[in-house]
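Spend some time on the protein that follows and explain the fold to me:
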Amino acid sequence: MKVLSYGEVNLRFTPPDYQLLAQTNQLTYQVTGTGVNLLTNLSNFGMETTLLTTLPDNSVGKMAAANIRKYGIKDHHIQFNGNHMGSYFVELGYGVRPTVVTYQNRLASAFCQADPASYPIEEAVKENDIIHICGISLLLNERTRETALKLAACANEFGKPLYFDFNYRPSLNTEHSKAFIKEQYEKILSLAHTVFGGIRDLTELLDIEVNEELPYLEQLQMGISIFKQKYNVTNYVGTNRGFENHEHSLAGFMDGESFKVSSTMPVDLLDRIGAGDAYAAGIIFGLTNNWPEERILEFAVSNAVLAHTITGDVPHTTLEEVEALMEGRQQSLIR
């Protein structure tokens, strides 16, 4: 099974040993991005993956492409143009101190400045079985929006299932009204097979009304039911995070054949960024293998829980590790 993802590539800079930026003059970097994270994980699971993006035409871009190849992702649809790559700094939290993410000027990146006509969209779609688009591309600028919408339309034309991740972030919408952004999302939602999101995406962006007096899961189920009927989406999938008695937990939900919730798993939180991409990768892998929905959910949540234990955005988990966690066979030392 072949998967294509369209999305931005970023450089993540992180101070060592949970330090703040003010404490150190040392940083590590990692090549990341929703598409990179998702495809790396699916590549680890044995799927053939390709990234559609634009990198700067300089040594930074060449370095990023080399890392993408190292992750097992095909790079033949990566374009090179411009001289800037989006970046952000992550000051890892510890205990009661939260993780802080500070973005650089991503709108000046080669990805955001790329001409939609520069991408071989039809060729890329024909080569692959599944198309994935991150919703951030609808928030950045007109160029990324146009590319995402063209890709979604092409996937629909050739009968390729479209997996769409809301990733709605109001902070990125600085130029348009919420109504405009809602309209752009609706153009893709009507073409999507599986959508990743939460209740806030439904109520805050799409203005779907739920009875807030109901328990949370019933509100969620009501909102998803309205959403699926309106947009004719096959699956709506997401996660529920918990925090009680100073302990983090994670559960997944999926509304496909029917509304289902996974078991709740405790989370040892080393680095939470990228765990959502691991969850999405688990869902995609399970659906493409035609697993029962209950197994898909347990696999995806287990994968996300493991991703929390890995430093950096990219979830370098393997099929064997996830299955061992699901079956209670995990070990503290492997030799």
In short: The chain has one domain: 2-326. The first helix runs from residue 34 to 44.
